[in-house]
């Protein structure tokens, strides 16, 4: 979290076993105007679950005559989708759903495992990190947020980039931002926005 929103960041490396498969993977998906999904784990399972969530959200909008599904509703829906499908095709994966909850006027972050276990990241914790470099990134984020609990957008973006850098320095499966530009979004009360130039962003 930052003062007026959420930053979601991911590197661009996909691996298969000990081999690097791609350097330009897009690991963050826009689920709705106010929510994003990112994940780590088995690519096919992640893509399938993302598509299922989007399909069910669109179905809800159609059946409710255009009513918007809140972030909490999306999280509960995703939990149930995972629990229904996981007995048949569950593959090791972890997910983060982040966004702005219009009904409650607050920013929220949820974490899920492949079986549908879930919890909401507290305002005290302030961040979530997953993947092979997630522990390293998490330690950087925790240290930075302990020093500055309420960063503004540019301070939070700088911290996210530092977490990606440190993770890549110590984890073979994470792509260094210096080699390929990471994918970074911000979510505020206007919706989701891709940060096209993370090193020189516009507010």
What does this structure look like?
35% of the residues lie in helices and 27% in strands. By secondary structure, it is α+β, with helices and mostly antiparallel strands. The strands form three sheets. The protein has a five-stranded antiparallel beta sheet with strand order 4-5-6-7-8, covered by helices on one side. The longest helix has 21 residues, at 43-63.
Strand-pairing-aware structural class: alpha+beta
- Could you give the order of strands across the largest sheet? 4-5-6-7-8
- The best one-word shape is globular
Proportion of residues in β-strands: 25-35%
Low-confidence runs of at least 5 consecutive residues: none
Biggest beta sheet summary = 5 strands, antiparallel
Cα-to-Cα separation, first versus last residue: 16 Å
Helix content: 25-40%
Q: C-alpha Rg, in Å?
A: 16 Å
